[in-house]
Amino acid sequence: MVSYTTIATVLFGGFVDRYGRYFGFLRDSLPRADIKIPFRSYVSFAVLTAVIMFLASLVGVTIATAYLDLQMLNKAVLIITLPISISLIIFVLLILYPYQKTSGRRKDIDINLPFALTHMGAIAESGVPPYMVFKLISGFEEYGEIARESRILVRNMDAFGVDPLTAIRELAERTPSNEFRQILLGIISTTESGGDVKTYIKNAGEQALFNWKLKREKFMQQLSAYAEFYTGILIAAPLFIISLFAVMNMIQPNIGGYDILTLTKLSIYGLVPMLNIGFILFLKGVEVEM
Question: Could you tell me the residue ranges of all domains in the chain?
Answer without folding.
Answer: 4-106, 111-209, 211-286
